[in-house]
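Quick one: structure tokens for this chain, please?
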Amino acid sequence: GVNEGYLVGACSGYLPTRTEEQKLKFQIHLRFFAALALLESIEEVPIDQIAKKYSTNRGLLQSLQTAASSYAGQVAVFCESLGFRTLELLLSDLQVRLFSGVQKELCDLVRVQLLTGPLARVLYNAGYTGVAKLSTADPVTIKTLLQGVLPFKDKEETGERSWLDKRHGLTELEAASHMIECAKELLQEDLADMNFQVDLSEIISAKSKKEKSTDCDSALIPLL
């Protein structure tokens, strides 16, 4: 296991690897070092801060996250095949957290296309705690939340801002609408998995009409 004396020596630059036993100790403590970095990543510490703290680079950390996430997914599938349902659920959540670098409450949101960990946190703090709530959101409201968050780039000729993504050249409003539509699709799939045959588009449309009617009634009250 991890030895405190070995860590003290490592901090002083003493890392002997001449014998097989010393090599084994080095590998054990190296894995412990990597686990500490991964722990900070799933606690949503910015990757630049982690890279600086552990004297490494972003690329290596991201590769470590991807490898750890992949391994967690493999073990989750193995647990599912053995019928270890509880352990499989825990590892599935851990897989998402490692891949996206988020805390548990953001696991549902980061399923939405275009939503990274930092963007998901902004939406979560604004009250959109999952795909169910995001699916009924107003695109203009989501656009407002996205305006203070990268990655966007100003277009000099139009003054608009476009989403910096290799697959999408979207404005803020288009990106917001895309996220909402993706949330609707995910929610529909979740309901289908639970054997609920529901047309979300009709429900959301009815809810929007009801809200507009309520707003109109409120506006008329001062006139009566």
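Residues 155-159 have pLDDT under 50 and may be disordered.
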